[in-house]
Structure formats: structure tokens, C-alpha cells
Design goal:
This protein has 15 helices and 17 strands. With about 500 residues, it is an alpha/beta fold. Bound molecules: pyridoxal-5'-phosphate (PLP).
């Protein structure tokens, strides 16, 4: 019987679109074989909107199986250490300090090859990276973001210490391992040159360990000497040259994976012709544009690299070719710059307007009754004192202040419990280790609105309210606002407005 279904599936009769199949790649032994050979994709909308004359191409490193360019060096370091008998399957333990992506690459190789893998990474790095690492079976150790690289608390120092303590531990050490630049010299650079028939005028590359930019730079200088190699380094880091470029007040930046406070051995400044310094707002806005306008599901450092490329590619002419390397993918940042609220609360995006809500644009005053009073303890207090203050005040946070009463962080039961659960050994009586320093806060001296509070409450359980003293510039804590406080305030005021 001729019915709708059989007609629908008369597939032979449709016009067909069959792409050329790569006959050499029928079956892969394992996923590690798929690392590299990433596509080079022409950019269209952004170059046009930015008035760029040259052709721009994105090297889509975020399409590697672990989600980043670092899969290449992780696999290369493992293969090299195996060949030299340093890594022994079933026996060795891989341990590495990383900003996450090298860790994911190593955890991927460890999962396939059967190594125990321990990754030491700063707290700044996203939970998405941590969860990916855990899913791959890696063990995670977090270290304070603010710890300088040479301090005993940094991820590099902790990994070095553990590699001496744990039997059969092997630290592959991406900062000092020639396989890092070599993976790009042999792999990434060859691919770029092959795709463009050895004719490229500029490559723009983010700098972390600098293995990518140094490895690609070396090969490019040999095969295409006219090409300008551009390194991208965030303000707050010291990798760029000349040194004056690195002068900055920036203490912490949000973009992950690029920038350091020391010069890694895997950096060769000789092969980098020009450096561009970047900042968070424009980098992350550009990453959102790469996703929205070009369909490239990349991460934050890709935005930094693209922003830098737009500045330098303005000097190139029609017909010249500029390659922009996109290091990692959107998955790492789903709760960070991909979240509108996250962007808004850092002033990287305006708060949405909403004319229908009477309270949306209301400016919060210092004495507003929606602000819950909070207690404060000195930074020299003990954990027990902070817990006692928390219980007594009944507010969800206790302020931690310095000698001048300036807010330096908060203490919360949730965070303290999480830290305790992750601590190996006995309870530490050091309040510093339990202080939350990254706080969602509003300043009543800045005409902050309820819109800001409401958007923040989408991504945090409490908004800390502060006031900046105009003469001393000291930020003093005033209280806290929770969803409960905001709801009660809105309903009470709405009832009053309606005459109930
Ligand atoms: C997201 C991201 N971008 C850029 C880089 C920089 O790469 P490289 O370490 O080769 O300089 C890294 C390195 O970890 C990274 O994770």
C-alpha cells in the first residue's frame, strides 16, 4: 500500500549532497589518533564589520577531541616519555600543574592508555574544566589563584612537591618540555602552511606557556619568512616585549589560559615579531561575537586573540592572509562568559532593560529595608570566631575586614564546608584559606539598581552590599541581599502601591 511514510523514505529520488570521503581515515584505533588536523575556516562577518581588507582564517584548535590545542602537546609529551622509558603504562602516575587544558589532554591520554593522572590547577579555572577532568578519571588538586608561581602554594610548586612524594610520579612539565613547542613545530604549523600553500602573511596566537606561539613561530620563520608572528598577552601578565607593554595595575584577569607572571622556558621571544596586550571585557565580547556571528564555539582566549588580530590585521592589504588560532572551546565556560548575567555583573555587557517592572530601575539606597544586616570579623580571627558570628547574625555571610574596616572577603557556611571536605588532613584554623574573595557585590555609592541585584541573584545565592567612602576610597560592608529579601521587598511595596 502506498502511504505517506513510504513516499517520505523514497530517499534515492531526492537530490543528493555527498561530501568527499577521506578514504585514509576509515577507522581510528583510539581517540588520540584524532588529535590535530584541525580545520582552517575563513572568517566573514567580523572582518567585514571591522573594515579588514585581508583574508582572515580561524585555526579551529577547539575542535580537538579534548576541546583544546593542548591535546597536541599532552599526547606528544606522553609519547616521548614512553619512548624514553620514563613513563611506564600501568605503573607511572602522571602529575601536572596546568590552567586546565593541558590537564584535560593528559587526562584524555591517561584514560586511553591507563595511567593514574593528578592535575593541579588554580581556583580561577572553571568548574567545567574540573568536571571534565573528573569525568576522565583524573584526580584534582586546587590551589589559590593569587599564589605567585614561585610561592609554595602555587600549582607549579604543589605539583613539584607531590611529584617527589608520590611513588612513580612523573611530571612531564609543559613549561620546560621541548615536546611542547615541538608539537606545534611539527603539527600545527605544518597544517597551517599546508592549508595556505606556504603563503601566509600573519599568524596571531595567544601566549600561555608560549609553546604554541614559539613552536609555530620557529617553523614559520623557516618556511615563510615574510610572515609576521604576533603574540597575544593579557594586561597583568609579563610575557610581552618590550617590557614597557607589561606595565599595568591589573592584578587578576578573567580570561583563562593566557598570561604568566614568569617567563617559561617554552617561550622564545626571538620568533615573535609583535605583541598585543589584551583586556577581559573586549576579549570576552569578541569571543561572544565569534560564537554568534561566525558560529565558532570557542573559549575566552580565542576572543582575546581575535580582538588582537583585528587591531593588527588592519595594516594588511586585500589578498594577504592572516591566521587566528582559536585555542579552546565553549564547553569550558558555560557558567562563565557564556552566561549573560556573568558578563553583566562584571560590566562586560549592559543589564537588560525592562520597562514593565516598576522596580527594575530603582536605585538602592544605603538604608533600604531589603538589605539584611551582616556581622564582620577581622581577617585575624579564627574559623571558630567566624562561625560564631555567622550563627549569631543569622545572615548567610560574615564580612571579613582589614584593620581599616575595608571588606577583603566573606565567610560562608557553604564555602567553608566545601573547603573542609576538600582538605586532606585535620581542620585548619586559618581564616585566609576559608575566605571567599571573589564576591558578587553592589556599591550603593554607584547608583546600583534592583535590576543588577536581580541579575546577580540568578547566578549567586547572595549579593553583598558595600559603600565606598568618598574621601578614603575604602569599601565598607553594609549587608547582604538574598532572593528572599528581594521578593519580600517587591511584594510589600507592590501591595503598598496598589493600596492593599
Ligand atoms: C585556553 C587557552 N588559550 C591559550 C593557551 C596558550 O597556549 P600555550 O600554553 O601554548 O601558550 C592555553 C594554554 O593552556 C589555553 O588553555
Amino acid at each position: 500500500m502506498e502511504n505517506g511514510t513510504s513516499k517520505f523514505f523514497n530517499l534515492k529520488e531526492f537530490p543528493h549532497i555527498v561530501r568527499a570521503l577521506d578514504r585514509n581515515l576509515k577507522i581510528q584505533d583510539n581517540v588520540l589518533n584524532v588529535i590535530g588536523n584541525t580545520p582552517l575556516v575563513k572568517l566573514s562577518k567580523i572582518p567585514k564589520e571591522e573594515g579588514i581588507q585581508c583574508e582572515m582564517y580561524a585555526k579551529c584548535e577547539y575542535l580537538n577531541p579534548g576541546g583544546s590545542v593542548k591535546d597536541r602537546i599532552a599526547y606528544r609529551m606522553v609519547l616521548d616519555a614512553e619512548q624514553r622509558g620514563i613513563l611506564i603504562p600501568g605503573k607511572s602516575v602522571i602529575i601536572e600543574p596546568t590552567s586546565g587544558n593541558t590537564g584535560i589532554g593528559l587526562a584524555l591520554a591517561s584514560a586511553v592508555k591507563g595511567y593514574r593522572c593528578i592535575i593541579v590547577l588554580p581556583e580561577k579555572m572553571s568548574d567545567e574544566k574540573v568536571n571534565t577532568l573528573k569525568a576522565l578519571g583524573a584526580e584534582i588538586i586546587r590551589t589559590p589563584t593569587e599564589a605567585a608561581s614561585d610561592s609554595p602554594d602555587s600549582n607549579i610548586s604543589v605539583a613539584k612537591r607531590l611529584s617527589k612524594e608520590i611513588p612513580n610520579a612523573v611530571l612531564l612539565d609543559q613549561y620546560n618540555n621541548p615536546c611542547n613547542p615541538l608539537a606545534h613545530y611539527d603539527g600545527t604549523a605544518e597544517e597551517i602552511l599546508w592549508s595556505l600553500d606556504d603563503n601566509v602573511d600573519m599568524v596571531v596566537i595567544g601566549a600561555g606557556t608560549c609553546g604554541t606561539v614559539s613552536g609555530i613561530g620557529h617553523k614559520i620563520k623557516e618556511r615563510c619568512p615574510k610572515c609576521v608572528v604576533v603574540g597575544v598577552d593579557p594586561h597583568g601578565s609579563i610575557l610581552a616585549e618590550p617590557e614597557e607593554l607589561n606595565k599595568s595595575d591589573v592584578q587578576m584577569y578573567e580570561v583563562e589560559g593566557i598570561g604568566y607572571d614568569f617567563l617559561p622556558r617554552s617561550l622564545d621571544r626571538k620568533v615573535i615579531d609583535k605583541w598585543v596586550k589584551t583586556e577581559d571585557g573586549t576579549s570576552l565580547q569578541m569571543a561572544r561575537r565569534l560564537i554568534k556571528e561566525e558560529g565558532l564555539l570557542c573559549g575566552g582566549s580565542s576572543g582575546a586573540v581575535m580582538w588582537a588580530a583585528v587591531q593588527v590585521a588592519k595594516n594588511l592589504k586585500a589578498g594577504q592572509k592572516c591566521v587566528v588560532l582559536l585555542p579552546d572551546n565553549i564547553r569550558n565556560y558555560m557558567t562563565k562568559f557564556i552566561s549573560d548575567q556573568w558578563m553583566e555583573t562584571r560590566n562586560f555587557k549592559p543589564y537588560p532593560t525592562n520597562d514593565k517592572l516598576w522596580w527594575w530601575n530603582k536605585v538602592i539606597a544605603e538604608n533600604e529595608d531589603l538589605i539584611q544586616a551582616t556581622a564582620s570579623v577581622s581577617q585575624n580571627s579564627s574559623i571558630s570566631e567566624a562561625i560564631a558570628a555567622l550563627r549569631e547574625s543569622k545572615a548567610p555571610v560574615v564580612n571579613i575586614v582589614d584593620d581599616k574596616g575595608s571588606l577583603i572577603g566573606i565567610f560562608t557556611a557553604d564555602n567553608a564546608r566545601r573547603r573542609l571536605a576538600n582538605l586532606a588532613g585535620s581542620v585548619v584554623e586559618d581564616l585566609e584559606k576559608f575566605t571567599v574573595k571573589k564576591i558578587y557585590q553592589i556599591d550603593v555609592s554607584n547608583d546600583s539598581t534592583l535590576a543588577a541585584v536581580s541579575r546577580m541573584l540568578d547566578i549567586t545565592p547572595y549579593v553583598v552590599v558595600v559603600k565606598t567612602d568618598a574621601s578614603s576610597n575604602i569599601q565598607k560592608p553594609i549587608g547582604v541581599i538574598t532572593s528572599d529579601d528581594l521578593l519580600t521587598y517587591i511584594t510589600n511595596k507592590s501591595n503598598q502601591l496598589n493600596g492593599n
